[in-house]
Amino acid sequence: MLGFIGPNGAGKSTTIKILAGILRPDGGRVEIDGRDPFADRERHVARIGVVFGQRTQLWWDLPVGDGFTLLRDIYRVDPRRFARTRDELVGLLHLERLLDQPVRQLSLGQRMRAEIAAALLHEPDILFLDEPTIGLDAPSKLAVRDFVRRANRERGTTVLLTTHDMHDVEALAERVIVIGHGRVLADCAVEGLRAQVATARRLNDGLPEDAEDEGMTIEAVITRFYAMHGAAEA
Amino acid sequence: MAPHELVRPYVAAFASRFLQMLQYRTAAYAGFATQCWWGGIKVMVLAAFYGGAAAASMPLSLAQAITYTWLAQGLLALLPWLGDPEVAQAVRSGAVAYDRLRPVDAYALWFVRSAGWVAARVLPRVALMLVFAGVALPLAGLDEWAWQPPAGVVAGVGFLVSALLALLLSTSFVMLLNIVAAASLNERGINALAGPIVIVLSGNLLPLSLLPDAWQTTLLLQPLAGVMDIPARIYFGQLGGAQALAGLGLQFFWIALSVAFGRLAMGRTMRRLEVQGG
Amino acid sequence: MGSLALFARLVMASLHGQARYPASALMLTLGQFLVTGIEVITVWALFHRFGDVQGWRIGEVALFYGLVNCMFAFADGLGRGFDVLGTELVRTGTFDRLLLRPRPLALQLMGHDFRINRLGRLLQGLLVLAYATVQASITWTPASILVALFALAGGVALFLGILVLQGTLSFWTTESLEIANVLTYGGVEAAQYPLALYARWFRLLLTFAVPLACVAYYPVLTILGKPDPLGAPAWLGMVSPLAGFVFLAAAFGAWQIGLRRYSSTGS
Questions:
Q1: How many independent structural domains does chain B possess?
Q2: Nearest CA in chain C to A51
Q3: Which member of A98, A200, B129, C247 has the greatest number of CB atoms within 10 A?
């Protein structure tokens, strides 16, 4: 479970698109599971799932269930296996009553749940989540986080998450990569970031180690971290 | 109230809409190239038909038919087949309720704004078309394909008057479409059917004179003839003197009728919207 | 599921979505029928007044008209994905979503939003073909049917190619894409009439640059059994639709270049 964060314009969405095979890097090499995402597009995308926050891959006028079935055919999933996966996802994300409704009639929270299910129907090895909780109310955010954690733990799906909601990161990420100005600024666990910020405060601000450090909210930590590296939030 | 105070809100409304629409320049150019091509093909087809036959017995000479084609392309935005999108938007967003609160006549306000919308789309296009077909083509030696000047100064003036009436006529029809949009919430159906009817009956498809002789009287009397065909006929001098005045009178008649009908319909629609709290 | 079957599924999904609003679909189809059909009034009125045009009679012209409209109806239905690429798909991120599916991109685009109202144009094209058969006393032998079908296929390929080019253009700019209408709608308008009517430069344009002549003019001459006033050999109409396929292949070549550009700049 990887959290991928950085200020606006740092290149998070671009990186995801390169990893997904939509964009081609100007230089360097990309390899996922022995595949070049761009050159091997069809083979590569068959093994990944992508969720873009606030946008849906489902068909606007079709009922959710019909959309799922169409995805089954697009991804060439074995029908019986598909039925099991779908039923499981529907149960975990509470989509039973939504299956007959056209996507256009769903609320944003409902759409995101359907969206995440849709991305996992073909049991991808990797799940990319680009701002999945943006615009969601608190209960929906918790539901999404909960589900993503389960998918990661129980199914072994690698998850790469970008988000501006630091609570997502704190709740989910085992490992965090922070980028800014197109460079990697950090690659560690969340606690590692806290530690770096605490150290910087002690060194630069001359503050003794005190309880205020532990109480810093995750947002404050990240903001401070960006500031330390001159990568201010836009 | 002094006259100029009376018309102030309407002049302001017209001017603001007009200037606002004039800003959409890129759209003007892209459509222009397409229209030049379109006009060109129509002209070539007409020339092919005229080429063989006894052209003298035709109601329109080839040169006139060609000029008509370019005129029709230039005046395309006059064709009233769409409601004013600003009105549709105002209805959807509920802003239309504010119109009732303003100390002006709602119909008149919508009318001048729609007129500004139509005029701002017509004037640049007709100017461009005139430059292309009236200046560039003759300069390129393609005089036979060009936009010919009017049949005389009187015809030219008469044309301008008639074109102004055509603008008013078109706006009054756009108003009817606006009101339909306000009344039902689904104007797409009407728009789908209005287009073909307007294109044929206004003369945009083919000069009305070229349609069968048996249809001519009806074609001239129907309301849409005043949107393009009557001004064109005055331009060519086909309708001269008393006949030109009769043509202008016909335009005026249809304007009066559709304005009256429009005001009636609008009043009822507004009352209904009020009741629904729309 | 194989690609062809999937294509059919995508088309069906499009139609299903539109069929949920039957009244609207019907209205739009009727609208298309009328909008495309008013051209018939022009043709008919001109023939009514002039009798014939440079030796071509109305029945013969009707054959051109009907065939070209049927071609474009199919191509228009298949090409919508390319048509709205710049204005809808790229802007909303839907195009990226298509790239994320393990299926050929072109196939997905052809199955995207297959508009039911294109049936309106097809219907009036077929009606005009029927009229042409009667009016010009065309006897449809297996040979002439084959020529017509081959011409139809070539024509669909040609018009689709134009739409593919329009989509390709949208990778560079989203402005002024309607310039392609010059070739699609303008092309239909021009090819409705026998090309012999037009000036030489225009005929050359329509034979070699955008080979409408090859998919409409020469095949129809073959079907009518009419010698070409311009002197082309009689068998030309049987092979010329190939040009439509060549054009489509070239269009896809340009498409690949456009895709490379998209993948290095994103949106």
A1: 1
A2: C97
A3: C247
